[in-house]
Amino acid sequence: MKKSHPIRRVVLATAATVSGVVLLLSLKPASDPGAQAAGATPQQTAAAQESPQGGASAAGSANGTIDGAVAQTQYGNVQVRLTVANGKITKADAIQAPKGGTSDQKTALSIPKLTQETVAAQSAKIDSVSGATYTSNGYKQSLQSAIDKMKASAGTSQGSGSSQGSASPSQGSGGGSGSGTGSGSAQAKTVTGSVAQTQYGPVQVRITVSNGKITKADAVQAPKGGLSDQKTAMAVPKLNQEAVAAGSAKIDSVSGATYTSSGYKQSLQSALDQAGG
Amino acid sequence: MTTTLAGGRAARRQTMRRIRPRRSPATVLLLAVFAGAVGVLWLWWHNTPSIADQNGKILNAGRITGLLAGYLMALVVLQMARVPALERRVGSDRVARWHAMSGRYTLCLIVAHIFLTMWGYALQAGKSLGDIVQQTIDSINQLPDMGKAAIGTGLFVLIGLTSIGPVRRRIPYDTWYHVHLLTYAAVFLTFWHQITTGNDFAVEPTAKTFWYALYGSVTALVIWYRILTPIRLNMRHRMRVEAVIEETPGIVSVLIGGRKLHRMGAEAGQFFRWRFLAPGMRFSSHPYSLSAAPRPDMLRITVKAIGDHSARLRELTPGTKVWAEGPYGAMTAQRRSRGKVLLVAGGVGITPMRALFETLPGASGDITLLYRANTTQDLALWDELAAIADDRGARLMYAVNSPDGERPDISADRLRQKLPDIEQHDVFMCGPAGFAQGVYEALRGAGVPARRIHHESFEM
Which parts pass through the membrane (chain B) (predicted)? Predict the structure, then answer.
């Protein structure tokens, strides 16, 4: 039955909550010390430890899978797993990636691109995916540590094996499904871009390139169902036309179909990247 | 003379032996609630390695407020689950005040959580604070379970609006109550987005399990104590109205018969929530105190006609079926820690005091009842009280307005004058808030420690 002071109570509760939250936020470091420590001392996973023994085999310098160190980002952990054959990265996966909230979307958007880029570049010098900077940086960090391990294990077996690592740089047939229709590189070839996830469904672009120019563009995947059928019917032919006219991914979005347009441009860019490389 | 004194002492020792004060578990429970909140914050701390920039700070503030809101929401529901430990040990009135307070606080956290998270997402997408509405619409469309969460939040806001003082006083009790029942739907709807989009639950399976356990056990308690326990109680005791008696103008007693009523374990000072299955009354239940010690075949409530519901009680016909939930309330003999007791009643607040006056163990002169009313005509149950006082040698005092309407003097000095050893008493008090506040201050002035003033008030 103590006298109640409603206003005092409201002020106290607000002040306590706000200062508590601010205190917690300010106590968190801007960059994670744990992640740097983890990056400096790459974790030796079981897969990575296999390879020194694999040095006994003659040709294959580093076959199997290698896991990079866990990179901690603001939105969660990122960890890369590389599949290596004859000293080359044949496949890249993210075995950990941010989840929850908008992170699900961003992971779905950025990881396929990053893994594709990895196989194409054969190094950690890959572009960040815009809109997913943190994930990209974490990915590159983990990738670098995996590549370091790969090189370290290749080094131990270099005496017997041939230096495969320097042979044949990127072949352009990276993660996408590029297929040359002719035998020479100057001939027309068809390249399919990576799948771009949009809110209404995936978009995937296929282009035909001849003499470095886009001669044809079409969408092998586009949003379907409901209103999307209309929008796809309206937007995709325009986008195809624009792509051929511009010869690049710098094309205008079709108004009323912004998501589809930006997905289209994304996929187109990845197709162009493959065709160019 | 000496013998009577010795006899008095022996009798007092006898009563003391029956006094086993039970402390309210409120402090322990509040500490447990705080420990839980610390645990929830630790979860966030553990899952957040670093915060890079301003945007990250905003998003993480959104996560913290969201986690706390999710945690408290479970407790807000738990407070209304009619768990006996809360209703009978802490006291229904106190728990109801906790519920109101934590409910308001949680609603504020929810609003802050939505605002901060959407602001953070907008910044993340390269937009500004101005695009927060568009960002909210996008998130509802894109993220899993966000549509449900949006509907649930709308319900929470509605529930909050109908509970604001002036609004609540203007709408009928039944409307307010039924809107309030939507809380269950709102909690269900907002639960899922916590699991599917909550960062901490996405990365931490243990946290997810804990969250399911928290909400699962609250659901189980609600089903058990709000649904199954009342069904069992009413199946077993089959209560009916026996008679309705007019005590004074505007105050009626309702006698309720039933089977093996002593098995309900009700004590003097407690109340039930009553629902009379008569036309126009069956859809709402109201708390009324027992105005006499429960008997195996009979319970009695005494009610002043102040609202729609209480005014209709007068028209109840014998044989009307009664649905009761209870017993609730912590203002019982358990609270007593001393041999001497002062009961203070204001108006119809006499009902639980009347039951305690009859049943509190005590020797002659240990129990005193102070009854305040506007006029002597308003002293309901006076004849019974006088008979009990005579019978057990208890003191009965009343304070009414003087004929010219002047209020009686209930001050520290006056109380000490009437009861020279007042600081040795436990005080039980029931009455309107203003009256109770005045008496409380007088009692404190007269030297009664706060821990020995037991009071129940259903005003928020």
Answer: 26-45, 65-85, 105-126, 146-164, 176-195, 210-228
Query: Regarding predicted confidence, which is higher, B54 or B42?
Result: B42
In this structure, chain B runs to a length of 460
Number of folded domains in chain A?
2
pLDDT for the residue numbered B188:
96
pTM: 0.70
Q: Which domain holds residue A258?
A: 179-276
CB of A29 less than 8 A from some CB of B: yes
Residue B280: count other Cβ atoms within 10 Å of its Cβ.
Answer: 11
C-alpha–C-alpha distance, residues A70 and A35, integer Å? 7
Q: Which residues of chain A have pLDDT under 50?
A: 35-61, 157-186
Q: Three-state SS for A56? A: coil
pLDDT higher for B91 or B143?
B91
Rounded Cα distance between B394 and B340, Å, is 11
Residues in Cβ contact with B262 at an 8 Å cutoff, skipping those fewer than 6 apart:
B294, B295, B296
- Nearest Cβ partner of B52 from A24, A74, A100? A74
Distance from CA of B342 to the nearest CA of A (A): 16
Task: Give the pLDDT of residue B20.
Answer: 65
Nearest Cβ partner for B65 among A3, A21, A34? A21
Quote the CA–CA distance of B335 and B199 in Å, as a whole number: 46
Q: Which is it for strands B395-400 and B367-373: parallel, antiparallel or unpaired?
A: parallel
Which residue range is the domain that position B380 belongs to?
Answer: 333-456
CATH number for position B360 = 3.40.50.80
At residue B285, what are phi and psi to the nearest 5 degrees? Answer: -115, 150
A154 and A195 assigned to the same domain = no
Same domain, B112 and B212: yes
In terms of domains, do B199 and B258 share one? no
CA nearest B62 in A: which residue?
A21
In a domain, A10, yes or no: no
Asked whether residue B355 falls in the same domain as residue B422, the answer is: yes
CATH number at residue A255: 3.90.1010.20
